Amino acid sequence: MNFEKFPAEVSIREVGPRDGLQNEDPVPTDDKVRLLNALSRTGVKRIEAVSFVHPKAIPQMADAAEVWARAEKNPDVRYSALVPNTKGAHRALEAGFTEIEVVVSASNTHNLRNVNRSTEDSLDDITGLISLLHDEGASAEVIISTAFGCPYEGDVPPERVASIVDRVVADGADRVSFGDTTGMSTPVRVARLLDLVKARHPDVPLLLHFHNTRGTALAGILTALDYGITEFDASVGGLGGCPYAPGATGNVATEEVVHMLQDMEIATGVNLPELIEVARLAQEIVGRELPSGVLRAGPRLPQISREKN
Amino acid sequence: MNFEKFPAEVSIREVGPRDGLQNEDPVPTDDKVRLLNALSRTGVKRIEAVSFVHPKAIPQMADAAEVWARAEKNPDVRYSALVPNTKGAHRALEAGFTEIEVVVSASNTHNLRNVNRSTEDSLDDITGLISLLHDEGASAEVIISTAFGCPYEGDVPPERVASIVDRVVADGADRVSFGDTTGMSTPVRVARLLDLVKARHPDVPLLLHFHNTRGTALAGILTALDYGITEFDASVGGLGGCPYAPGATGNVATEEVVHMLQDMEIATGVNLPELIEVARLAQEIVGRELPSGVLRAGPRLPQISREKN
């Protein structure tokens, strides 16, 4: 590892308001707006704000349009929304989003269980979705979930993930994101996938989305930094839990990512003490203790930051 | 990072029975013996079994001699004990230990608060302790705690830690261990310290002891592996907590370390499903949920190991 060659700057996308809250018990619209507004003031550069999904499938996001309409938009923040299909895409476009994410699972079984169609069929839908989004002047990011393993199928071959990248890049995807959906990544799996994809698509922006279910999230980020990756998802407080194991950790906590990067002198723009305050707010909103170590124990130099404040 | 050059094998020292239980509420002697015996059967190669400290200072270890006398000794396991001073060393030697650890804090303030003397004075004591242990045919490991930061002083310069290594190596220390006592390490700090120490003492065996208080433990281990380090401490279930922050994580969980290394095809000798069973036992013994992600969520391929069993 050559720390000297690590990127000087990293762009964190805060996914707590969407991916986080979507995996918690539903919370009131007011709280969602409060959380979004508070995050918009932390210095974070990107926020995944909401998803436009069917309210019966995901009641947590039923009020997406209202949340977004009421949220303060910080001109320094790039906001995005996730959509599952054409209907969702139209709702997101109507709401004014210009950065839109669509999702497909690398594991066929996972895709079938999630959206009742094969990975192949979802990719066909995505071809049309990318065109639609581009026609309306929005960018299209394809999130490939279960990119490091599937809870049903087990290991997912990196070649399979890379061939999905080939397909969506050919279809015009502006960015590709790899989801460690149930926390099955380990450093060597991150390296193998990035080796393949970077060789084939050196210029496609890649974003990594780690879960900390088995403690490996920051090790995965470290590995990705060594590959020059500069875009990572993270969730304030570790909001989102792990739907497969009650009490277990899901999304890596934004504070833990910022805290490590800060000590490595990699800029994120995020004000860590403010972010920790927002993690406390998130904890209050969902009414349970969140798993973020930096939230619980404070940053590594707590007494020193106390003195400074 | 060049995974091809990573060590093929890693020696984990299980510290749950000593460092773990020493930082939990006291548990009965029977439970300590059960835990030790169960760990001895997991395939782990080394166990820090007990410490011989003053029972008034650390009541958790008051029954160390009895625990050790009653424990089953697996001939394939190397057992060690920690001692704070000459009296403790004599007790450990009497009990039959031949691998003994002594400890000094790199941070002077931490050393003063812990043992009421300066780092310099502790180092003078250690000179005598190493001689005594060698005279009695035992090996002497020096643990340098707060090696990546101190909760009172903040950052600890790696040069200071390296100069302590110089001193104890000159005094005959057989091994040196770096303690991330309150979870203040980040990958770049691990690299800086190892750069310095490996350049000066390429042949001294180094052992790293990480805490996962702020999520960085496995990233630290990954960094150390890149430096060729092959010895790590870990605590079953993450036993040990964090005395500075209730509910926070202390020692990195042995299951998380074994789980990551296994997926990287680095041998540890440990049977992961058996180790997870012992983590459940540890949880039962201390009567609280332990922070290990692999204990809570299971290994990354749970359904597959279920099918195999």
From TrEMBL, chains A, B:
Keywords: Lyase, Metal-binding. It comes from the Bacteria. SUPFAM superfamilies: Aldolase (SSF51569). One of its GO terms (biological process) is ketone body biosynthetic process. PROSITE patterns: PYR_CT. The keyword Lyase applies. CDD domains: DRE_TIM_HMGL. GO terms for molecular function: hydroxymethylglutaryl-CoA lyase activity; metal ion binding. Residues 10-276 form the Pyruvate carboxyltransferase domain. Belongs to the HMG-CoA lyase family. This is Hydroxymethylglutaryl-CoA lyase. It comes from Actinorhabdospora filicis.
